[in-house]
Amino acid sequence: MRHRKRLAGEEGFEPSLADPESAVLPLDDSPAQEDYSYSYSRCQSERRRRTLKIVEKSEIRFGIMWQDGIMLQMGGGSMLDEICPVQFVEGVNECAEATDDYINTMEYSGVAIEYTPTLSYSLKRVDIFLTHQQPSNENKYKVALCTDYGNKPSDIVLSKGEWAWRDVLGDWQRVELEPVVVTCNKKYWLTIDLDKGNIGLPIAQGEEAKEVSLRFRGEYKWVIHGKFKKDKVMLRFYGRILPIVG
Which end of the chain has the least Cβ crowding within 10 Å, N or C? Predict the structure, then answer.
C-alpha cells in the first residue's frame, strides 16, 4: 500500500506596504453623483400605469377604494376623481312632471323614503324634488341613509349629509352625502330630519311613475301614514360605478 506524503503548500508573497495617502478615504473629494435626470412626463406616465394596475386589484369598502388596507390617493386629491368621477346613476320618477298635489310633513319630525338600488355603486349625492321648504330650528335639514329593519329605517346610519334652507318653490334640492357603497336589490331608507321645519314632497304624474314606500316619524318612532303609505316622490342619485374585486 503506497503512502503519499502530505506537504505544505508553497509559501505565498506578502502584500507590499500601501502608500500612506492611498489607504485613507478621499475626504477631500466630492461624493459620486448619481444620475437623477428622470423626466417629469415619464414619471407621470409610469405613475399612471401603476395606478391603473392597482385599481384592477383594489376593492371598495365603506365607499372608499382600498389596496392592501391603504386608501388610494394621488397628489392632493382622491385618484377616484380621475379614474371614475361622480355621475348620475339612477333616479325615481326623475323625468316625470310634478302635480299640484304634494305630501305635507308638517305633522311629523321626520320622513323616510324607501330606496332599493338596481345596481351596486358608491353613493355620493342625492337630489330631492321639493314643492317648498320652510325653515327649521337651525335652518338646516339633516339627511341620512339607513338600513332597513322590519320595513322601517333602523338606527344604523350608513351615510349622512345636510342642506341649508333656501326660499325656493318647485326645484331640486341637492344633498352631498358621505360616500357609501349601496348593494343591488337591498332596501335602504333615505331619512330627512325636519327639526320642526316643513317640506313638501310633490307627487309625480304619469302612467310610468313609480311608487315607493314612505315612513313618518312621530314623537318616538317611525309610523305608517294611512294616506301616504306609498307615493310617487321624485329623486335622483349620483355616485361612482366601480368594480368590486372579490
Answer: N
